[in-house]
Design goal:
heterotrimer; A alpha/beta (435); B alpha/beta (370); C alpha/beta (283); A: 435 residues; alpha/beta; FAD/NAD(P)-binding domain; D-Amino Acid Oxidase, Chain A, domain 2; 3 domains; nine-stranded mixed beta sheet; eight-stranded mixed beta sheet; 15 helices; 17 strands; 38% helix; globular; B: 370 residues; Rossmann fold; 2 domains; seven-stranded parallel beta sheet; five-stranded parallel beta sheet; 10 helices; 18 strands; 28% helix; binds flavin-adenine dinucleotide; binds adenosine monophosphate; FixC-like (chain A); FAD binding (chain A)
């Protein structure tokens, strides 16, 4: 056992852990952060979108030195079938603003930067150190963690569990259940390296402008899933994710999905000539509001993905992670500054603050979405994209068929595939879930 | 290999490099090409002959002489080395013969070689990139404060007579051409087997210039107290084998290495491996082929279950014929192999061995143990 | 006993990419690691310290971010870390690198006690010359022991050291004296995991950062590009082979027939082999 005792131990140096450690250390707490990866970010899936506001709240001048890849000026949503995509593109010069709203980042680099800030704020950061279990006293209060460094333990008044989606510490201690397969998606992802100029040309970008494509449809073979493509400076991150329960129910492997996605005629030309250097698979919590476990207890709190705080509908995760980490940090600092113990009744402050933030509000808004997408995935991800593609092609192709007949054919195809009642109920349910 | 690589377009002048172009006057009378003849335990290392071949070409291009440098104890082996240097076309030999040069020691060899350079002033000095050559070259270059380009794969002289030394960089993904601009001699080391072995002739012994080494045994701190030979059985002389069969991770299990050994034995070859097999402890380190292992130059190289990473590739490119067996039709090894077979090596190797047995020794039914 | 270990932070060469047009290294996203060979040197140094007492100082010359490598060495259990960083060092070749490192080692000697052993790795995976070690030894006038596979014994009072040195076809047993410089061969030992307290100490220790002047280097012309007699004139990609491998057709064939075809193809490519293999193999 190490003789040292800390005010707080943060397990994990991802987005949520860094936010929590930074917040507490800069408020003068004695903080120890443990990360099992070789360095912060090394185990994290690379290439992502960063939402600036939430980081700005924590580190206002982050733009000065954070490793940001491109600021996003264009977003494409594609509905795909096997040979086509129907899309909505939104591009605006307004996004070329002095303090842009969204950036692409490479997690390995970004997390390293964030971690440096944490260290500069005064926290002690240990990498290549895994917390193997929580240490409890006789009264069931968490008093520290055991590490994989010769099984040595280290103590603190409170432990912040920021261990990501499949965090073992919390589940081992019985504080939360292993997330259900229908509440987590498995995303696989590759980094495709391309020279900066080529990316600029292919996506119509200059300087560090960036573009994002999000795609759904038959690419997920009828499972609830989403494909994505983000432009970084010298690479393109590309991936696809589907619910774990769906993968289990079908014979599809994530790799084949990704391969098919890459090979789709709409995607392939965007990647031509690239060199693939990284392959990663990672889980995303998708259970939404209903899957949120107990977030605090005697001497512990849970933040970020570990608490299922992830908005699958909007592909937001890191901002919820950062915000929950920050709020937990603020709550703990407040309790500490008043000299109070890290007991459940005091730590409930964290939950109360979180409830008032956008994190819980957003998740509440979409609380029915995960179930809907899960039970109806075949329609949303197979039937509709195909129908839509057919309709669009009907509309675009000029072949002498009277327009009125084209319209009829389109409607007929929709009805045939899904029945009027089915269509109606899907629309209603989608609207309700979105509302 | 050396000539092929340097036939690439002439180097573009680099801004900062050209500022060093002027050779100081005291280096202007440095002339001739020297090759250090590596003599250890009575044997000349074959890399020395390979270097004499390269040295000959450079000397002819420059219109200067090629000299061998031999440091050794008085006796037959040293005399034999002198004869061999001439047989491999040296014009003259610098010889330092002293009992304290019996075993290689850095102190004595560094002094002997730097003394020779300071006295006779060569413009180019080549050494083998062996454990001995690298140990010596670093000390000599630092003593002389001159440039040293290590592990070259190509040597040439450019229009103004400078040595253009080409070597792999960044783990073999790129090559770079390096010049030593305003210092002399221009030093380079070359790994065994990277250069072709030249023809041996029966030239009579030529001019030998003897030089003294003023050093006493007491001045040398390091003493050789023993030598443990690798022994005959495990002594992989892989680098010089004519036929090499190698296995990679694709073989799947240490047991399958027997399949390699069977094939190697059948066709009279040696066997080696890619690096991961050494790391797994499946094979001894001196059987590793590649950038951080051995460079080979066999007539036939058969790679089974090897992906063909660049670090492996640089060690085998000198082979006359490369055969690759791999289950993945897109494996990079097929980019530089001559013949490819998309097949499972574990089932294919025994079949190949049998066909060879049949074709090579008809009626001779050797049963190999598995 | 004071031991200095030279380590270098290098790009993980397995991840290097080359720009297809400009032929320059694309560094983005390429992780850096401690030169793998240096870890063997570090582990050996730690073992010697554990056995004989004393301190291990790790030293690197590199950009500010090389601090990461040093911090890591501290978690493994090194006692002190020195980062030699100065833009004057940019463009150093092995001669200039070994000059700067040897000056820094001398300064380490002045500040923290004269080293008894200096360790380097066998070679780096980016420079890959194996010359920096010998260069340092010469400059500091240390006994040079390269390609050391094993340290057999150290007798501190007699200042004697016995090592096994790898050479062509075998191993030499050498008896020598301290202080010396050892370039350590890769082996089977893996680098240790430091204790929790090692890790805590590493996370907090201040890394000594020296500029050229602070390292006691007066003559800056011996550093960096100016102090390097060699100049890289050109960087280019290896010429790809014009042709890919001729593939033996394997569709719907028995393994034996494929093997037959392969052997036939080998002998078509190199007719001479047929004879040579027969005489060798049947023996
Ligand atoms: C493919 C993919 C794309 C995504 N894209 C986006 C996006 O574009 N925008 C967005 O906002 N979100 C995105 N997300 C979600 C986002 O990545 C996560 O929500 C966010 O990273 C959660 O942060 P976290 O700190 O909770 O967990 P993590 O970032 O997963 O961090 C957990 C950390 O804890 C460490 N750890 C775990 N257990 C232990 C232990 N026992 N001891 C020590 N250390 C431990 C891990 O090594 C890890 O570093 C994406 C997710 C995926 C998988
Ligand atoms: C600094 C450095 C130095 C290095 N030096 C060297 C070196 O000197 N030498 C060296 O070799 N490597 C070296 N490497 C490692 C090199 O980068 C590669 O990792 C290594 O060569 C890969 O070995 P491999 O081909 O056996 O394994 P893999 O890359 O894993 O390839 C295995 C191959 O086997 C195929 N396969 C699988 N199953 C079968 C089957 N049943 N039948 C047939 N084929 C099958 C696969 O398709 C694959 O192509 C070095 C790396 C670094 C970073
Ligand atoms: N910049 C550097 N800083 C510290 N040590 C170095 C540096 N460059 C080389 N070395 C050491 O010298 C050894 C040989 O390097 P090289 O000559 O580049 O192959 C390495 O294994 C290191 O131990």
């Amino acid at each position: 056992m190490s003789k040292e005792k800390f005010d707080a131990i943060v397990v994990g140096a991802g987005m949520s852990g860094n936010a929590a450690a930074y917040t507490m250390a800069s408020r003068g707490l004695k903080v120890l952060q443990l990360e099992r990866g070789e360095y912060p970010g090394s185990k994290n899936v690379q290439g992502a979108i960063l939402y600036a506001n939430m980081l700005e709240t924590i580190i206002p001048d982050f733009r000065d030195d954070a490793p940001l890849e491109r600021h996003l000026i264009e977003q494409r949503f594609w509905l795909m079938d096997d040979t086509s995509h129907t899309g909505v593109h939104y591009r605006s010069d307004d996004f070329n603003e002095p303090t842009p709203n969204r950036y692409t980042i490479i997690r390995a680099q970004f997390d390293k930067w964030f971690s440096r800030k944490v260290r500069e704020a005064g926290a002690t950061v240990l990498c290549e150190t895994t917390a193997t279990e929580l240490v409890l006293d006789g009264g069931g209060k968490v008093i520290g963690v055991r590490t994989d460094r010769a099984g040595e333990t280290i103590h603190a008044e409170v432990v912040v569990l920021a261990e990501g989606v499949n965090g073992l510490l919390g589940t081992r201690a019985g504080f939360r259940k292993v997330p259900k397969p229908e509440a987590v998606a498995l995303a696989v992802k590759e980094m495709h390296f391309l020279p900066e100029e080529v990316i600029g040309e292919r996506f119509g970008l200059t300087g560090d402008q960036g573009c994002v494509i999000e795609a759904a449809g038959t690419i997920s073979r009828g499972m609830a899933g989403l494909g994505f493509l983000y432009t970084n400076k010298e690479s393109v991150s590309l991936g696809i994710g589907c619910l774990v329960s769906d993968f289990a129910a079908t014979v599809e492997s994530p790799y084949t999905l990704l391969d098919a996605f890459k090979d789709h005629p709409s995607i392939r030309p965007l990647l031509a000539g690239s060199e693939v250097k990284e392959y990663a698979a990672h889980l995303i919590p998708e259970g939404g509001y209903k899957a949120i476990p107990q977030l605090f207890g005697n001497g512990w709190v849970v933040v970020g993905d570990a608490g299922q705080l992830n908005n699958a509908v909007h592909r937001e995760g890191s901002n919820l992670a950062m915000t929950s980490g920050r709020i937990a940090g603020e709550a703990i600092s407040m309790i500490k500054s008043q000299g109070c113990p890290m007991a459940p009744e005091n730590l409930s402050l964290y939950k109360a603050m979180l409830d008032k933030s956008f994190v819980v509000k957003d998740l509440k808004k979409y609380k029915d979405m995960p179930a809907l997408l899960h039970t109806n995935s075949r329609n949303f991800f197979m039937t509709y994209p195909q129908l839509l593609s057919k309709a669009a092609q009907n509309f675009v192709r000029v072949d002498g068929t009277p327009k009125i007949e084209k319209e009829k054919a389109t409607t007929a195809a929709f009805v045939k595939a899904r029945s009027r009642w089915g269509l109606f109920s899907d629309a209603v349910r989608l609207a309700l879930a979105w509302r | 290999m050396g000539t092929r690589k340097t036939k690439a377009p002439p180097p573009a002048a680099l801004g900062r490099a050209s500022t060093k172009k002027d050779l100081p006057d005291h280096f202007k009378n440095y002339r001739h090409v020297w090759v250090f003849i590596e003599l250890e335990r009575g044997q000349v290392h074959p890399v020395s002959f390979e270097l004499l071949g390269e040295g000959r070409r450079l000397a002819d291009q420059l219109g200067v002489q090629l000299a061998g440098v031999i440091l050794g104890p008085p006796g037959d082996s040293t005399r034999h080395a002198v004869a061999e240097a001439f047989a491999y076309d040296a014009d003259l030999v610098y010889l330092v013969e002293k009992p304290l040069l019996t075993d290689y020691r850095n102190e004595s060899f560094t002094k002997a070689l730097t003394d020779l350079v300071n006295t006779y002033k060569p413009e180019i000095l080549l050494l083998g990139a062996t454990t001995l050559g690298r140990d010596l070259a670093g000390s000599v270059a630092t003593t002389l404060l001159t440039g040293l380009t290590a592990d070259c794969t190509g040597l040439d002289v450019d229009a103004d007579g400078s040595l253009a030394a080409t070597r792999p960089t960044f783990g073999g993904s790129l090559l770079c051409t390096i010049y030593t601009l305003n210092c002399r001699p221009q030093m380079a080391t070359v790994r065994p087997r990277v250069m072709r072995m030249p023809q041996r002739s029966n030239k009579p012994v030529g001019r030998v210039i003897r030089h003294d080494l003023r050093m006493l045994e007491d001045e040398i701190v390091t003493k050789v107290v023993g030598f443990l030979s690798d022994g005959q059985s495990e002594n992989a002389n892989l680098a010089y084998a004519d036929v090499v069969v190698a296995g990679g991770l694709g073989l799947g299990a240490a047991d399958n290495l027997q399949l390699l050994k069977n094939l190697a034995q059948t066709i009279g070859g040696d066997y080696g491996c890619s690096r991961p097999l050494v790391q797994k402890g499946w094979m001894a380190a001196d059987r590793q082929i590649g950038q951080t292992g051995k460079t080979i130059r066999p007539k036939l190289y058969i790679a089974a279950g090897i992906s063909g990473a660049v670090q492996h590739r640089v060690g085998v490119e000198g082979a006359d014929l490369i055969v690759a067996i791999n289950t993945d039709p897109n494996a990079p090894i097929f980019d530089f192999a001559n013949i490819g077979v998309v097949a499972d090596a574990v089932s294919f190797l025994p079949a190949l061995t049998e066909v060879f047995i049949r074709r090579l020794a008809p009626g001779n039914h050797i049963r190999l143990v598995n | 006993m004071h031991i200095v270990v030279c380590i270098k932070q290098v790009p993980d060469s397995a991840q290097i990419r080359v720009h297809p047009v400009t032929n320059t290294i694309m560094r983005q996203g390429v992780p850096t690691i401690i030169n793998p060979y240096d870890l063997f040197a570090l582990e050996e140094a730690l073992k010697v310290r554990d056995h004989h007492g004393g301190e291990v100082t790790v030293l690197t010359m590199g950009p500010p971010m090389a601090e990461e490598a040093l911090r890591k060495a501290l978690t493994y259990g090194a006692d002190r870390a020195v980062l030699l960083t100065d833009r004057h060092f940019a463009g150093s070749d092995t001669l200039a690198t070994s000059f700067a490192l040897s000056q820094a080692i001398a300064q380490i000697g002045n500040s923290f006690g004269t080293p008894d052993i200096v360790f380097t790795g066998k070679q780096t995976i980016d420079g890959d010359t194996a010359q920096v070690g010998p260069g340092i030894a010469k400059r500091l006038n240390l006994v040079q022991l390269t390609y050391v596979a094993k340290i057999t014994s150290i007798d501190l009072s007699a200042r004697a050291i016995t090592v096994e040195r790898r050479s062509e076809g075998g191993t030499h047993v050498l008896k020598s004296k301290l202080p010396c410089l050892i370039t350590m061969l890769e082996g089977t030992t893996v680098i240790r995991r430091g204790s929790l307290d090692d890790a805590l100490r590493a996370a907090r220790s201040e890394i000594v950062k020296w500029s050229a002047v602070e390292a006691g280097i007066e003559d800056i012309t011996k550093c960096g590009l100016r102090g390097s007699p060699t100049v890289v004139k050109r960087v280019f990609a290896p010429t790809p082979r014009e042709q890919k491998a001729v593939q033996i057709d394997t569709t719907e064939k028995r393994v034996r027939d494929i093997a037959d075809e392969l052997v036939a193809s080998i002998f078509t490519h190199q007719p001479a082999l047929q004879h040579e293999l027969s005489s060798a193999g049947s023996a």
